Amino acid sequence: MKIKYLLLVVTLIVPPFLFLSCSASDEAENRIEAAKIVESRSSEDLLNDLYLASDGNIESLSRILQVTPSSINRLRNGKTVATAKFEEKVKTVAIYYYQNDRRFSLVQSALDEEYGWYDSILNFPSHHPWIFWIVNIVLFLLLVIIKYIYMLYPFIAEMFIFLIAWIVSLICTPGPISDNFTNSINPTIEQIL
């Protein structure tokens, strides 16, 4: 009886560990492959890849790399050359990009603090479905109460609620990045050829 029990325990415990070790080795191989790809390419090519992956969202890319948009444009166009410190930063972000199956949204959610706020608002219904539906039901009940108390049409109350939401979104939206290096180079990021 003890042998059957021991055999049952072994068959239930060992396979998950085998799966985890295979998964860990696949992840290690993925990291090595990403590092090889990044090391074989120049920082200008990697920066262009990140720019294309971001769909031209240069502000998000500049927040991720912690530089100004004009510096990224000059580096991409070949007017200036990246410093060694900035090349390492580009390679680090590129490795993270290649390790995450070339999905820039994962890089944004991990490294861009403003995108985290945007992503939480955008995906709020899927991340917090109970809160989303409770708020919708409460708003619907408020609309019904407002309709019967003030005898207003429901679409006027809905428009009022959306107007308030629009005003709040305008107030909470961050401003554009201030770019102090539009006419001059940033010496910590780029060098003249």
From TrEMBL:
Record's keyword terms, sorted: Membrane, Transmembrane, Transmembrane helix
Residues that span the membrane, as ranges: 130-150, 157-177
PROSITE patterns found in the cross-reference section: PROKAR_LIPOPROTEIN (PS51257)
Protein name: Lipoprotein
Annotated source species: Hoylesella buccalis DNF00853
Taxonomic lineage from the root: Bacteria, Pseudomonadati, Bacteroidota, Bacteroidia, Bacteroidales
